[in-house]
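Why does residue order matter? Because the sequence determines the fold. Keep that principle in mind as you read this record.
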Amino acid sequence: MKRVLVIAVAISFVLGLVLASGAVASQKEAKALVEKAAAFMKANGKDAMLKEINQAKGQFDKGELYVFAYDMSGKIIAHPKNPKLIGKDLLNVPDPDGKMFRKDIVEVAKTKGTGWVDYKYTNPETKKVEAKTTYVYKTGDMILCCGTYK
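Structure:
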């Protein structure tokens, strides 16, 4: 019986490491996708980058990982999953728990330039509200973001 318990604990430990490394990998992928969008903008200009971000299933839309963008006031200027959001000022719209996450995104961009913001949001793939962490990257007069669902 003791042997079974030791094996169960070992398996739980290994599974925990695997799941934790998957979350880190997704965060690295989110950051890399944002940095790729910033490099695309430097090479092709802001308008071309926004057009590319808005393209569903384009190079900045990888299922649950997708780049979206805000202007410095928090208005959405690019979103490949929900084009109806483009041009909307949702700065004062909270997540389901009441967190004003868009204000946090703008604050991180203005004060630090880059960082992570946690909140809840509807996953476009599962259609369920899930915990999300989003990488924030200020470039010029806009904020590029990409999040991963936890």
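Residues 2-22 have pLDDT under 50 and may be disordered.
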